[in-house]
Sequence to fold (270 residues):
Amino acid sequence: MVDDVQSDLIFDLGLHRGEDTEFYLAKGFRVVAVDANQSLCDEVGKRLGAYVDSGALTIVNCAVAPESGDVTFYQDDFSAWSTVDAQWAKRNVRKGSHQQTYTVKACTTAELFERYGVPYYLKIDIEGMDVVALSGLESAPGRPRYVSLESDKVSFRALRNEFDTFVELGYDAFKLVSQRNVPKQQLPQPAREGSYVAHTFELGSSGAFGEEAPGEWISADEAIDRYRRVFLKYMLNGDDPLVRSRLVRNAAKVLGFRYDWFDTHARLAG
Fold:
């Protein structure tokens, strides 16, 4: 399946405002960028129109789901929280957000690969649907060398499921990348992925990928063990903290239990 990979191709599932896509393009990769939000697709398509015209960038307006068809899209006032996951949408409402709902077209990861090719790197950040997109690789025509997704920060069982899925798909090396620290990332020179670019990452972007992602490659068991401390921080200072006392939560921050969120980067065996 590795032989099917197009070494100059990246898939950006969760285009949003194009922060990641623009970085991948600058490094010399072709990009297939996918988002359910039509207005964001139009906005990025206009801003990066030269790449679209050259064929380097393909923007696909669809929601990644377990199967193709029509799905409900919860477009959030805070655009990064928009989702097709009803439970994720309810969480957003609990946090005081507001939404509008639309019917949008859905597609699967396998369908996207069949149409546009198997990418070298697959970035997944599609609020609540990351594992759905990852699971879609099982029936895809090939598997990317590298994959990243935003790991679950509510359920440790769900986190274990993420790693079980990765391992079943053949991924055997992992990095845990703090998203709070993405703006501090420094790209290596010479580059280890694509061309070198002097780039400053915005908070909310996914950051460096592949061999340029910070940290050491570790096993699935080691990664899960490291996530135990991360989950303790989530429980103390995350989206829905178990401890409601502001005094206790502030004390936890002083002791180093400051809330963060992580992407898991995975590398295919071999």
Observations:
- The first strand starts at residue 5 and ends at 13.
- The mean pLDDT is 89.
